[in-house]
């Protein structure tokens, strides 16, 4: 029997209190006999029984990836909906009942913002007794507290108050001068019982120390604690009551007397209780108070330490065995007056606790005990850490400590496993990088005094993120933030979003405005993201155009370029700028962004916009060609990143030559990368798309510095910011800008999904409607298998090698989708097996299939395992580090002229060393066979 799953409203499961315009439903189907949808029908009702309908699409050709419904919901209302899908096998499948609930929408607030004396350090607790007068049918809390808030309720008959909802760090991080989000909680149970509602406030991003340009700066958006809340009670007799914040609320002080995002929190339980006083009416904050867009940040996992380390310096340090982002809890039972200090770090140095690379972020928690046994947990901060130093606890035990992993509540939808343990660890590191940096805002890193929404970092990671998770709602909020910043900056996209202070911009960073919405559209198949963002996208290109003027001004202003690339000649250690001409990168991204706007406009049917931006793109592509390419197509920017960009955007009139140039550059660099933020995420994809998957695999599987597996071998559990964040001895290379949890280079996982596992999301069928399945088999990797639960349903693709040259490929295509399967190393004969449903429709070696599971086993058309002999080319021989080392005993391997690389070892010996005898050749062959 078929089943409908992942039914979502605006890409969120049963959203309550979100901004939901326009309304978009999506769902997936599995386990049915049919292969595709005949029609579908969505019904909406105020009752879960659907007795009366508010809306009915009727049987229609609804798009399961994004079915837009022209229904105008009312405020304060829960709507139930379900979808019924009829298949081509005459099945009708009905989803479970789903709901969405509106909040205040355009309704004015009757509550007022309240505040208290904000010059005191002790964080306030605002409270109000809630005493229902009749039987309660339903109650909701609409609330926003600044900087951060947590709401609690102490029921009349309970002893301890409990937290309302399961979210952390509400009301989340925005440019609060532009907009502020309120949350909605179902408090029917609490209000029915009656009791004390209390709200604890912290400083957070709003009023605590935070920011990139001036991290010491506090109170960026305001210096006053502020709270607004309305409790809407619907009684069973049909009457309503609203209790809102006003002067009748009271304030007392908590034992928290310090908190901010970077430094942590301080709590003193020996502080005397404070008298209660009345709240004061506050000025409303500057930004618009709106229904939320942020998906919740929740505790996603708990982890116990793997060890308690006693360091040479005499410290006690927990090791989690994994770098995570979140908070922790510690059970304490120390005498009154004892100070407990908890500090976090990413790495040990000389076996001791280390946190200098967090720069000014103290990342600590300080607690003064009142002598009672209790569990302490931070409220208004978070940490990026693996190691935890604890002092002040007399009998420290692993069992008393629990790490709480926090991140935005995205749904995981993809994973890959390969036959190589190091690659699998790399994949895990990338997944942890996403967990660690998807905390309401996509951040660069979670630990030092930064933790900000760097546009460039998430631009390069957005496709990977969309393979790993349903990223739509998360990025929807970020892109809204991004546009809010543009509105203040004449279309400029700041380098970090939300900005916190004066900001500049850069190519490849600001281009996030175009690249991310396009990626989200490709992966979701929902064009509302383009509709939401088209003004932002255009504004960014218009901004560049203004700076560019008539004299190429864009290439003359500051750009980060290929940030952290290793190829700048004469660069000092830990330099940040790469060798690729920044002007070239800027000019290309300008054209690429204009091109994306044109494509987005085409999707949205905005013909005039399409023409305008296509014209900009065409002109700019021409500018790039004229400036950086010779008339015969030779690229003047001879760096790995420079050539990768030339190939990605097909800029050279001689692509063969450009490919050869890239191949040679890589060979000159011993088949190692030296790319930075711009080149690295594109590198392997471009190599594969230009028939150089062999090189991409070499880069992936290289275990030496610099490379992805190098850091895995050095014990990384997340992806590092720099290729040399730690050296071979585990020493941190610098402390100025060096994070061990930066996901940017983790973007290689996109290539692993797309090409290693072969699940290649295409523009022809966004959201996986039409998938290209083209796995790239590699003997050394051994196997790969991926699951990707796309917007159109769950794809699987796996390959294995047996007996040296036998390949088995398995593919699953979901209901309602189609795939083009391209088999690796397939001999022609394989397509003649008409019994196998995979080969029902084959066009030019492409198997066109509908929903189903397919398997095929065949003998590879050419050998998979590379074997070496005197008749192998020097190119092949020297690419293998072990052979290179072996041959270096016989020849100057670093002094071989370019021309000779195409020669076999035998030919090279003949040309330069008087040839090899039959006997020598035989001996060499025996030795070479070993590799
Ligand atoms: C951040 C980045 C960011 C870069 C700008 C760094 O401080 O951590 O990842 O993209 O600055 O180039």
The gist of it:
This protein is α+β, with helices and mostly antiparallel strands.
Mean pLDDT: 97
Low-confidence sequence ranges: none
* Distinct small molecules: beta-D-glucopyranose
For the sheet with most strands, the description reads: 10 strands, mixed
Roughly how many Å is the radius of gyration? 30 Å
Structural class: alpha+beta
In DSSP terms (H or I, runs of 4 or more residues), the helix count works out at 19
Number of strands: 47
* Helical coverage, percent range: 10-25%
Which percent range describes the beta-strand content? 25-35%
Q: What does the overall shape look like?
A: globular
Distance between the termini: 52 Å
How would you portray this structure in words?
This protein is 25% helix and 28% strand. The chain is an alpha+beta fold and 931 residues long. The strands form 11 sheets. Strands 19, 20, 24, 25, 26, 27, 30, 31, 32 and 33 form a 10-stranded mixed beta sheet that branches. The protein has a 6-stranded antiparallel beta sheet with strand order 13-12-15-10-18-21. Strands 3, 4, 6, 7 and 8 form a 5-stranded antiparallel beta sheet that branches. A hairpin with a 4-residue loop joins strand 16 (226-235) and strand 17. The longest helix has 23 residues, at 582-604. The two termini are 52 Å apart. The model has no long low-confidence stretch (mean pLDDT 97). The site of beta-D-glucopyranose has 10 residues, from helix 4.
